Amino acid sequence: MAVIRSWHQHARCAQEFVLATDPSSPVVFPPLLLRHLFEGLGEEQKAKLLEQAAELDGQLPGGLEGYVTNARKLLKDSKEGVNPYEGFAPSVPQGEHLKVGSEDFERMEKLGREALSQTGFVLVAGGLGERLGYKGIKVSLPLYDALESECFLKLYISHILYIQEKFGKGKKIPLAIMTSDDTHAMTEKLLQDNNYFGMDSSQLTIMKQNKVPAIKDSDGHFAIKDGKIETKPHGHGDVHTLMHQTGVAKSWKDSGVKYVVFFQDTNGIIFRSLPAVLGVSVSNKFAVNSVCVPRTPGEAVGGICRLEHKDGRAFTVNVEYNQLDPLLRSTEQFSNGDVADAKTGFSPFPGNINVLVIDMDSYHSTLSSSGGRVNEFVNPKYADASKQAFKSPTRLECMMQDFPLLLSTESKVGFTTLDRWICFSPVKNNIQDAAAKSEKGLPPESAGTAERDAMALNTRMLQMAGAKIPEVGQAGTYAGIKLDFSPMVVLLPSFGTSLSDIKDRISPGASIEITSRSALVVEGEVFFEGKLKLDGALELRAQPGSSIIVKNLEVTNSGWEIVEVKQDDPSATVTQAMRGYKVVKHETRSIVADSEKKVVDEA
């Protein structure tokens, strides 16, 4: 495992910076107007501050000078009320709308499977779970209550290892993880304690994100606290800077990687759709392909737009939901603003879920040209009408999805829209906030809904592969959130990632019947060649190097039950309290193959 901090890649060392920025020297600090930082500091404090400044200077693609220069420009525009979309006309961009199971979907999935051996994956994992009511890192959360060891990070790595085994053509599929100060040590420990979840550490890179100077006023003066420059997070757009600064983008390109997939930390179902999305990128020769879902007007999800300026500039990029309506209203074509299309009932601008597939040639050349710099923005909260001082220090920010702004007008940028059930169900809210959203008819996006949606997806995939299984199982209200569960179906990544993978596990003549109250867990090389009748709970687990072939099996037992958990229940785990329920396992039939081919024929 490579652990890389970006400043290690820079030639300028702290000593050189200190010499060039000595506060007694008139050379560097006057242009930056940063002498205020040294007011009231002793010599030792000044030396420490200069050491910190040297480190910050090395981390920033344009150094401190570039950061301050851009900050002053953006702050001036903000103070004067400059509209960043002035002169741009929005239109619906080019993209694909895929219906799962259609001929187009199957064709794109086939194309994507062929390209998986040339794909690298980047996980943006800089967040803690505190806002969710969880003290650890978000990637250590379990997706399924019944399988607490299957945390998000393990599931993601397991998907990559399945792809590597089935489609890697002997190559190791690389993974890069962006961490933050808050998550770095815990991410390393989670990986090391679990032997990297079976992944070779040589194919894994951890890139630690750094913070940027905080700014206290519209003149771009840095905020100082306890004798140090105050710093704040820069945003997940840093992932592109780090991919360049650490040399990962170049090394991946040199090793034959042609596509890079960027994904988020708690969207546990995203890998199910990625082969088809990758196929769209291949088919359309997209430089950037944004994964999207149908968007309800007014929903707090950005929309992908084509923006064309009078001067010839053109971009296909995400427009944040709070900026989309005023942008549309400023035009004649969309004068009604962010409203639904009469035919579909959704916005014509697809909803961005922050999953990108980027062509490596375009990616590497663009980052090389920009020196790893990405577009930044500023969002100050002014102290008064003068718009000079801020209520609290601000900073420049950047977003991963703004990468297309760096591309030339000729670059082909598009999107792939899929139904939410196949690609998007994140864990964003704690149980109280999720209940409030549910009350308003909005997606709760909680730990419970993420689990429900994952099991519903697994159920639908089995249905589409020929199984007879109802879509609705147990239903109830848990901590104020109404949840209609499917049967408790868990298809682990080692059983298959895409719909085509699942279909390959079930023979055309097989007969699978599962009742609404049932629970099914499938892991590894499991094949259904005959009859399965399930009314209860069944686990089929084939360990690496083994397989299970189901020819004739009927299981009836007490099964599993979803039971409400009160928030003050001392017996509930933290992750159960986050859901408002727990899975009680009354009785389970387990069939495990450790190192052999096990044929199950109980006729």
Note down, in words, how this protein is organized:
By secondary structure, this protein is of the alpha/beta class. The chain folds into two domains: 86-209 and 234-372 and 407-422, Spore Coat Polysaccharide Biosynthesis Protein SpsA, Chain A (Alpha-Beta Complex); 431-601, UDP N-Acetylglucosamine Acyltransferase, domain 1 (3 Solenoid), CATH 2.160.10. Helix content is 28%, strand content 26%. The protein contains 16 helices and 32 strands. Helix 1 packs across helix 3 and helix 5 packs across helix 10. The protein is globular, with a radius of gyration of 26 Å.
Query: What is the overall number of helices?
Result: 16
Question: Which range does the strand content fall in?
Answer: 25-35%
**Overall shape:** globular
Q: Give the termini distance in whole angstroms.
A: 49 Å
Mean pLDDT: 91
- According to CATH, what is the class of the largest domain? Alpha Beta
Give the proportion of residues in helices.
25-40%
Strand order of the largest sheet: 1-6-5-4-12-16-13-20-3
InterPro entries: Nucleotide-diphossugar_trans, UDP-sugar_pyrophosphorylase, UDPGP_fam
Catalytic activity: a monosaccharide 1-phosphate + UTP + H(+) = a UDP-monosaccharide + diphosphate
GO molecular function, one term: UTP-monosaccharide-1-phosphate uridylyltransferase activity
Family: Belongs to the USP family.
